[in-house]
Specification:
Blueprint lengths: L3 E4 L3 E4 L6 H15 L4 H8 L4 H11 L8 H8 L3 H21 L4
Antiparallel strand pairs: 1-2
């Protein structure tokens, strides 16, 4: 099956898409922190420190300036695949987590 792991009957995921429980908790906690209105200014400061494409993907996915968009919709904007968009979003979240941690927020 190459780079794929079967989960259930009909679902197949690439190995790098399978998250550990710890990764899920960290990502969900970060997303909760990011969407709270009280943290908007801090988030904007941290986002400005990301590479431009990652900043745009995170902003679009979270709906910072308009309705949230899917990875596929964002991929069309940046002319990349939805899968690549998801990878860049994940990388952007990790960078945000490190930045916010260094600022004492996470």
């Amino acid at each position: 099956m190459n780079n794929y792991v079967v989960r259930g009957l009909a679902f197949m995921f690439k190995d790098d898409e399978i998250k550990t429980p710890k990764e899920i908790i960290i990502e969900n906690d970060l997303l909760e922190l990011l969407i709270q209105d009280d943290n908007r200014k801090v988030l904007l400061v941290a986002l400005a420190q990301l590479p431009v494409r990652e900043e745009g993907i995170v902003e679009l996915y979270l709906g910072m300036h308009s309705a949230p968009k899917t990875f596929e919709e964002i991929g069309k904007i940046f002319r990349i695949s939805g899968g690549r968009t998801r990878q860049l979003f994940k990388r952007g979240l990790e960078r945000l987590r490190r930045l916010l941690s260094s600022m004492g927020y996470f």
